[in-house]
Amino acid sequence: MNIYSLLKKLIPGWLKTLIINFYYSKFSTQIKIKNVRFKQNLAVKRLKKKDNCNVIFLSLFDSIWKYEDLYNLLIKDSRFTVTVVVIPHIFKGNIQMEIYNKTLNYFKNNSYNTFSSYYEENNTWLDIKSILKPDIIFFTLPYSYTLKKYTINNFLDRLTCYVPYNFGNSHLFQLMHNQLFHNLVWRFFAESHTHKMYSEKNASNKGANVKVTGYPGVDKLLRKDYSAAFNWKLKDPSIIKIIWAPHHTIDDDKSFLSYSSFLLYSDVFIKIAEKYQNKVQFAFKPHPILKNKLYNHKDWGKKRADKYYMLWEEMENGILSDGYYIDLFLTSDAMIHDSGSFLIEYLYTGNPVLHTNRDEKITDRLNSFGTSAFNQHYHAKCEIDVINFIENLILKIDPKKKSRKEHFKKYLVPPNGCSASNNVYNEIVQTLF
Fold it and tell me: Are 43 and 133 in contact (CB under 8 A)?
């Protein structure tokens, strides 16, 4: 009996099935990637013959819009027709019309060329592929949080692009770099060479579609010509402005993320805001998904969550900020958070920042890039640590200032001597024209 026959006899049937399914899955994924890449190459050749390309941005949330500067670059170029298409967010099987309308109003009110995917007259969601005939599609999320007609599988013969909705810091390499979406998208624009390395090590396509551009979401934080809107209630410059930004991961599954310490600090921050009423004003900047999580939490529910959010809106030295946040960052003095992307993004302001640590193993849930950023933070394990941070702000004590500057120069400056949005724009133009 040869070795093959012996193994065939000894391996149980269930294990054979598992092995076959594993290799079939890998093989079929590679075939799909190659087929899609072939279609995309044909699309590039087709577009090189056109005088004008239709570009659409698919947006579910205004709060994670990272494409403003890129949109402005494209719309000024006569070779592109550019549209922001607002599409629905689906949470637990239900379309969130409140979020949809909020996002739609944001883009309309800010003079974007906006297209509503919802046709109210007959309560239908439009086929934007046949109506707008896009050549290039920018996604804002890699997840299927919307209707199937607005996911990447409906655009495999077009040039699809993705800028991460957050500055990647998670240990979940498969989720952040190796979903089928990441492998199929035509261009995956990475935040840094470290992030490209994560794709090369983890993605089925070995990061073949990844281009290092820097992170467009922070471009405005680096622009010296940008004048941020001041939306804080108290105008006295001597009053310190602190953002509190809790994450949405209030569950207990620490194998996933579970960054959020909101349940531990929700009452604490109300008390602190009252204590420092004459010295500090706070912006409550929750993750956009947190409210829905609280609606479904056994100890909260809709009534309590709505009341809590309203409390911040009505507070004399507090505001509720649940949308676009770059202006908020630029007009603040400090941040306290347990967020994901803000771990890196807020470092672009140069301001002091405190991380409220939910447990002792936060860095186990971060990648190397995230851990490096985490080390530039002050850390709070309890209420006293938060109060000490605020007291140091009042006294202008900031021993980590020099370290943050060095970290910025080493890790956070975008490549090629220009902004991340310019790098994305240049990649598209140089490929197509």
Answer: no
Amino acid at 422: N
CATH number (domain holding residue 249)? 3.40.50.2000
Section 128-149 average pLDDT? 96
Q: Of 222, 226, 140, 212, which is closest to residue 424 (Cα–Cα)?
A: 212
Is the residue at 259 inside a domain?
yes
Strand 118-119 relative to strand 124-125: parallel, antiparallel, unpaired? antiparallel
Please tell me the distance from the alpha carbon of residue 16 to that of residue 22, in angstroms, as a whole number: 10
CA 100/CA 88 separation, integer angstroms: 6
Q: DSSP per residue over 202-249, as a string? A: HSTTTTTTEEE---GGGHHHH-TT-------S---TTSEEEEEE--S-
Q: Are residues 358 and 291 in the same domain?
A: yes
Residues 370 and 425 in one domain: no
- For residue 138, give the nearest of 182, 90, 84 by alpha carbon: 84
Domain span including residue 235: 224-413
Given a contact cutoff of 8 angstroms between Cβ atoms, the answer to whether 344 and 369 are in contact is: yes
Q: How far apart are CA 360 and CA 380, in angstroms?
A: 11
Same domain, 63 and 116: yes
Query: Per mean pLDDT, which range of 5-14, 135-144, 357-366 is the poorest?
Result: 5-14
**End-to-end distance of the chain based on CA atoms, in angstroms?**
63
In a domain, 197, yes or no: yes
**62-97 core/surface letters (b: 16 or more CB in 10 A; e: else):** bbbbbbbbbbebbeebeebbbbbbbbbbeeeeeebe
User: Is residue 382 within 8 Å of residue 364, measured between CB atoms?
Assistant: no
Beta bridge partners of 84: 57, 114
Split at pLDDT 50, 70, 90, the class of 406 is very high
Residue 7 confidence (pLDDT) above 80? no
